[in-house]
Automatic annotation (TrEMBL), chain A:
<keyword id="KW-0479">Metal-binding</keyword>
<dbReference type="InterPro" id="IPR051134">
    <property type="entry name" value="PPP_phosphatase"/>
</dbReference>
<dbReference type="GO" id="GO:0005509">
    <property type="term" value="F:calcium ion binding"/>
</dbReference>
<dbReference type="GO" id="GO:0030145">
    <property type="term" value="F:manganese ion binding"/>
</dbReference>
<keyword id="KW-0106">Calcium</keyword>
<dbReference type="GO" id="GO:0005506">
    <property type="term" value="F:iron ion binding"/>
</dbReference>
<feature type="domain" description="EF-hand">
    <location>
        <begin position="590"/>
        <end position="625"/>
    </location>
</feature>
<keyword id="KW-0677">Repeat</keyword>
<protein>
    <recommendedName>
        <fullName>Serine/threonine-protein phosphatase</fullName>
        <ecNumber>3.1.3.16</ecNumber>
    </recommendedName>
</protein>
From TrEMBL, chain B:
<dbReference type="InterPro" id="IPR002048">
    <property type="entry name" value="EF_hand_dom"/>
</dbReference>
<dbReference type="GO" id="GO:0016460">
    <property type="term" value="C:myosin II complex"/>
</dbReference>
<dbReference type="GO" id="GO:0005509">
    <property type="term" value="F:calcium ion binding"/>
</dbReference>
<dbReference type="InterPro" id="IPR050230">
    <property type="entry name" value="CALM/Myosin/TropC-like"/>
</dbReference>
<feature type="domain" description="EF-hand">
    <location>
        <begin position="119"/>
        <end position="154"/>
    </location>
</feature>
<dbReference type="Pfam" id="PF13499">
    <property type="entry name" value="EF-hand_7"/>
</dbReference>
<protein>
    <submittedName>
        <fullName>Myosin, light chain 13</fullName>
    </submittedName>
</protein>
<feature type="region of interest" description="Disordered">
    <location>
        <begin position="1"/>
        <end position="28"/>
    </location>
</feature>
<dbReference type="InterPro" id="IPR011992">
    <property type="entry name" value="EF-hand-dom_pair"/>
</dbReference>
Length: 628, 186
């Protein structure tokens, strides 16, 4: 390649260098784009499975609502679930105080966990945080005492907290934590503990999914008690005892406190309903967990009786028999909508405001609604959480809305960073990002995408497996001659029709289907290759098994509702009633004999009652490819 | 992907520095592009297009800014200049607000697919060999970083860091054949 003339040689060399640089840059950009595609795909999988689960839950709950509304003396199902709809019984607070009294609970000498003196001090709460860091558990007596104090304090708070930003004390705003204690500890490490010099706003969803929801609550409540004017807690959609039945918080509490768990849960139920709904900084920045809708009215929100909405999943029916009933119901519905919108809504890129059908509650709201609501209430910025973001935060709607999410590795190790906001009186947000867990710091971008992707595909294969009989019948519609083959196009459209997850199946195909021949695939073989095994149980009726797998979470929710004393055990009769409820909700046929057989076979210790946790464990699907 | 022809060295004169365009660049006219994709390919593109569509009502629209990423995710590797060209050289402020639908996207993608060859493994290795001063199969990481950040379609520092992550040995050198294999293996 050497040229004869030195000038040419110099020019050529410079051109080569530029051309080499361009080539590398182009390849790099392609590499990043392809990784981004995979990451997006993976994200889609996790998110659609998560939201499908939420939607499922709301459908179940709406079904309960339907049962309640259509009361007939003979309907036994209604009695089964009526207690969950009973509002916080009209008891005097003194009666509740008696019920939640901790004084009779003794702390024995054998207890090695942290002690708490009251009134709590900064020192006491910091020691508590240290204890939690070392995986110690707080004694039930102290838990009840702390929660009792929190409940009393929260009742004195308005629905909307007002905060003044100040030069010497920037405000820290955190998003969803979802039981990830390591993230809260990381935030405290980077930013300092809450104090009168270090005010904090925590924007809801403290519980569910992670393993340390209770420790997070106790920590936040502890600091709240010490600095009631400087720690602000907003309610999230997961601060809801019905949601907790499904997403793990109830199970966590009962697992950690077998004797007093039920009382703790009841007290928490009341605390959740007393959590404020919003925080406003300098009358200019609105902070709510979900978002807004076109009807959001801060004055109305300030006036609602917020503790009526113990679970935001259904408008409470007033037990009034006067002619005023219809009027109060309308106001009730209006208030309920205000609360739902604030806790459940998500932003969308286009203008308008439509019901949020994906979640089942709240709205999707557009940039025009943001402008209007901010203008109407004289605000300049909306900060919300509720949606996981890869970088821990995201702007939208012309930077008038910020989503802040503080649970890193939410879907999987390496899936996303968490972030928090620091804001001074100039009301300009500064973001600090982080990622808990030592392992992911060493992963390259490609490795962390790969890891998360593997996990998402595993979850997806489980979903496919669970729907296999529906899938096979649907495929057979395109295979009239029963050859066992179907085109890729039909595979993609059919799978979407059955699973209804809104996923890009053609993009996912290379990772889900091992081989195709001339655009055709063997679907029977494919189902087998999903390599999910079922636990070995003596169940004769396959349709029950399928229903079981598909409705795992629904069943768990129903079980825990029926288990009114939170003992973790239900009787055969209750077991049967559970299936009755599920059957009528799904409108499927399940024979009574099949249920009875099932009950017998899972009464593992033959004592006539069924352990919920054992039962659910027995039906956990195992992805054997995960062990490679 | 079908093997592409080796790029002629003279063609390297075509890449422009990222400053004002020369007037002789032809304006892209989507009407002049004939689509040669198979129906199967179009279905695949649609799926990928949908992945980038962030409208909750699934309007099958993406922003101008996403167009380049999508084309790259589908296996092409155009320069940024080529992308701006098929987009009709939009203003910077339009990149995140203007949308295009699938029918507008197809001719752009087709044009990029038909455009000059994007380089094979050999091209890539040849390109890096330019920096191999000692002819021993390695390049200095620092030199490569400098070039990527200052020449051609400059990369940002964090992009260069990401590219070079875990690639340099204890002496700050990179074995470039391994490097190329790594980049091309995504």
């Amino acid at each position: 390649m050497q040229k004869e003339f030195p000038v040419f040689s110099l020019l050529n060399s410079a051109l080569n260098t530029i051309s080499a640089a361009l080539l590398i840059q182009r390849w790099y950009r392609q590499h990043v784009a392809r990784l981004e595609m995979r990451r997006r795909c993976t994200w889609n999988i996790f998110q659609s499975i998560e939201y499908a689960g939420e939607q499922d839950q709301i459908k179940l709950y709406n079904y309960f609502g339907f049962l309640m509304d259509h009361f007939t003396p003979a309907s036994s199902e209604r009695n089964l679930i009526s207690h969950i709809f009973r509002k916080n019984e009209i008891c005097l607070d003194t009666e509740w105080e008696r019920y939640f009294c901790y004084k009779s609970i003794e702390v024995t000498k054998s207890y090695t966990g942290p002690h708490l003196t009251f009134p709590v001090t900064f020192c006491g709460v910091s020691k508590l945080v240290e204890a939690f860091k070392h995986k110690e558990q707080l004694h039930a007596r102290y838990v009840l005492q702390l929660l009792g104090e929190t409940w009393r304090l929260l009742r004195t708070f308005p629905n909307i907290s007002h905060v003044i930003a100040c030069h010497t004390k920037p405000i820290t705003i955190c998003g969803d934590l979802h039981g990830h204690l390591e993230d809260l500890l990381l935030i405290f490490y980077k930013n300092g503990l809450p104090s009168s010099d270090k005010p904090y706003v925590f924007n809801g969803d403290f519980v569910d999914r992670g393993k340390n929801s209770l420790e997070i609550l106790l920590t936040l409540f502890g600091f709240l008690l010490v600095y009631p004017n400087d720690v602000h807690l907003n309610r999230g959609n997961h601060e809801d005892h019905i949601v907790n039945l499904r997403y793990g918080f109830t199970k966590e509490v009962l697992g950690k406190y077998s004797v007093h768990g039920k009382k703790i849960l009841k007290l928490l139920q009341m605390i959740f309903s007393w959590l404020p709904l919003a925080t406003v900084i300098d009358n200019k920045v609105l902070i709510v967990h979900g978002g807004i809708s076109d009807t959001t009215d801060l004055d109305k929100i300030a006036r609602v009786d917020r503790q009526k909405y113990a679970s935001a999943l259904r408008p409470p029916k007033m037990k009034s028999d006067s002619y005023l009933e219809s009027k109060t119901t309308e106001t009730d519905l209006d208030e309920w909508k205000q609360v739902m919108d604030v806790l459940w809504s998500d932003p969308m890129p286009q203008n308008g405001c439509i019901p949020n059908e994906v979640r089942g509650g709240g709205c999707y709201w557009g940039p025009d609604v943001t402008e209007e609501v901010l203008r109407r209430n004289n605000l300049q910025l909306l900060i919300r959480s509720h949606e996981c973001k890869q970088d821990g935060y995201e702007f939208c709607h012309n930077r008038r809305v910020i989503t802040i999410f503080s649970a890193s590795n939410y879907y999987e190790v390496g899936s996303n960073r968490g972030a928090f906001i620091r804001m001074g009186p100039d009301l300009v947000p500064h973001f600090i990002q982080y990622q808990a867990s030592t392992t992911c710091r060493e992963l390259t971008l490609r490795q962390s995408v790969g890891w998360t992707e593997r996990s998402a595909l595993q979850a997806l294969r489980e979903q496919l497996f669970v729907h296999r009989s529906d899938l096979i019948s649907a495929f057979q519609e395109f295979d009239p001659n029963n050859k066992g083959m179907i085109s890729v196009t039909h595979w993609a459209s059919t799978t979407e029709r059955v699973l209804n997850l809104g996923l890009p199946w053609r993009v996912l195909r290379p990772q889900l289907v091992s081989s195709t021949q001339r655009g055709m695939m063997d679907y029977q073989q494919w189902i087998k290759e999903l390599s999910i095994t079922e636990p070995k149980l003596e169940i004769s009726d396959n349709s029950i098994l399928d229903t079981m797998y598909k409705n795992h979470s629904n069943l768990e929710t129903i079980f825990r509702i029926i288990d009114t004393d939170h003992s973790g055990l239900i009787s055969f009769k209750e077991f049967h009633q559970t299936w009755e409820l599920l059957r009528s909700h799904l409108k499927t046929e399940i024979s009574a004999k099949a249920i009875a057989d099932l009950a017998q076979s899972i009464d593992f210790n033959k004592d006539g009652s069924i352990d919920i946790n054992e039962f659910l464990e027995a039906f956990r699907l195992v992805d054997i490819s995960a062990h490679n | 992907m079908a093997p592409k022809k080796k790029e002629e060295p003279k063609a390297a004169a075509a890449p422009k520095p990222p400053e004002p365009e020369r007037p002789k660049t032809p304006v892209f006219d989507p009407a002049t592009v004939t689509l040669e994709f198979t129906p199967e390919q179009i279905e695949d593109f649609k799926d990928s297009f949908q992945l980038f569509d962030t409208t909750p009502t699934n309007e099958m629209k993406i922003t101008y800014a996403q167009c380049g990423d999508l084309i790259r995710a589908l296996g092409q590797n155009p320069t940024n200049t080529e992308i701006m060209n098929v987009l009709g050289k939009p203003k910077v402020e339009d990149m995140h607000t203007k949308m295009l639908d699938f029918d507008q996207f197809l001719p752009m993608h087709q044009h990029i697919c038909k455009a000059k060859d994007c380089g094979t493994y050999e091209d890539f290795v040849e390109g890096l060999r330019v920096f191999d001063k000692e002819g021993n199969g390695t390049v200095m990481g620092a030199e490569l970083r400098h070039v990527l950040a200052t020449l051609g379609e400059k990369m940002r520092e964090d992009e260069v860091d990401q590219l070079m992550q875990n690639q340099e040995d204890a002496n700050g050198c990179i074995n470039y054949e391994a490097f190329v294999k790594y980049i091309m293996a995504s």
